[in-house]
Structure formats: C-alpha cells, structure tokens
Amino acid sequence: MGDATAEVPKPMLAVRGRPMLEHVLENLADAGVERFLVVVGYRRDVIESHFRKWRLPVDFAVQEAPDGTGSAARLSRGFTAGEPFLLTFGDILCGAAAYRRCAGVMEEHPAAAAVMGVRMVDDPWRGAAVYEEEGRILRVVEKPPPGSSTTHWNSAGLYAFKPAVYDYLERLEPSPRGEYELTSALEMMLAGGLELRIAPVEGPWRDVGTPDDLSAVNSTVGG
C-alpha cells in the first residue's frame, strides 16, 4: 500500500468511511461472534485506541516481528481457551454468510479439525491452491507458480479451527520465504491424518492487497 500506510496500519485504511478492520469485525459480529482477539504489530496504538471501547469486547495480542500468519495465529492460544474458533485476516472483506458457512461445515463434519474458506478462481497462483475430493482437503500449496495448478480453489483467507491446530503451529519451521506460514500448519495437519474441509465462499469477497483493490472496494456499494 506504500505511502497510504505511512501513518496507519493497513487494516485501518478507510473503506466507505470506516476502517477496513471494523467492517471485518462487524461482519463477524453479524455471524454471531461475541468476543474478538486482534493480533497487532505495526502502529498498534492506532488499532488499539479505535477498538478499545468498541461495542463488543476486543482483546489484543502483539506480534513483535512480522514473521508470518502461523506465528500470529499461535498468539491466540490463550484467548481461545480450548474452544473452536474462527480466524481471518484484516484485509479480507466478506459477508457474514461466509463466516457462518465455515462454522456450519465444522458442525456438519464433527471429525474435521479445520475448515478452510475457498473461492473459485481461474488460477490460484496469487494465494494458496486447495485440492479436495468431495469437500475433504487433500493438499494445500502456498503460492504455486502461475499455470501450475490443476485446481481452481483458492484460499479465501478465513478459517474455522479446533484447538488441535495449536500443536502444529508450535512445530512450525520457517518457510522458504522466511516466515511461519499458517498453510504450513495445514499441510502438517493433513500429513498427520487430520480431516480438513472446504467451505466455498459465495457472495461479496475481496482481498484488499493493493491501492487498486482499495479504490475498487470503496466504489462498490456493499462490496
């Protein structure tokens, strides 16, 4: 996002007059979530001051170094206290139905240790390619080379997890990019024989990763 984040962290950039992260939390609240943990780092003061007196309880955990989504997720262990939980990112915008669907798939499949929201795309090279059979995940490939995937499912950046995920998050090693990746934990869970499921996301969804994305979502009513 370049200069746009010189003074504020990316999740606090304005989307239709409110911080992007507030839209995320509002949609989670509409899906029935009542307590939130926000992992903060860069310019954490901006986020904490905005949400400390929000209408629902918001706790904070500090990721001292921006070393990956897996290490950020690991910080939630005490907060979730052994219960299933939803996880998403501060730059993923979608409707409440997407969160309800993730939770619903987990209820439908009690043996599942995790549910991954997915989107249908032409080529999932920008995110994580998800291979599945009858809804059960077989393999997840983080940022595959363009044109190399034989699946059209792409990670949508939202998940439902059971506490078993933490055993794998604790065992993470740095990826080739030097980060502790959440998708690496998913791959380890699959290798360990755990059941993981997909939840196709329908309706509004956007990964706000660039200034063009931000401009587009601000010009789309309800996007």
Give an overview in words.
- By secondary structure, the chain is an alpha+beta fold.
- It has a single domain (2-218), classed as Spore Coat Polysaccharide Biosynthesis Protein SpsA, Chain A.
- Helices cover 29% and strands 27% of the residues.
- The chain has eight helices and twelve strands.
- The strands form five sheets. It has a four-stranded mixed β-sheet. Strands 1-2 form a two-stranded antiparallel ribbon. A two-stranded parallel ribbon has the order 3-4.
- Helix 2 (44-51) links the parallel strand 3 and strand 4 (58-62).
- The radius of gyration is 17 Å and the shape is globular.
- The chain starts with 13 loop residues before the first strand and ends in a 5-residue tail after the last helix.
- The mean pLDDT is 95.
- Tally the beta strands: 12
Shape: globular
Whole-number count of domains: 1
**β-strand amount:** 25-35%
Q: Whole-number radius of gyration?
A: 17 Å
Reported for the largest beta sheet, the result is:
4 strands, mixed
The CATH architecture classification is Alpha-Beta Complex
Q: Kindly report the average pLDDT value.
A: 95
Order of helices and strands: EEHEHEHHEEHEEEEHHEEH
Q: At the third CATH level, what is the topology name?
A: Spore Coat Polysaccharide Biosynthesis Protein SpsA, Chain A
Secondary-structure class: alpha+beta
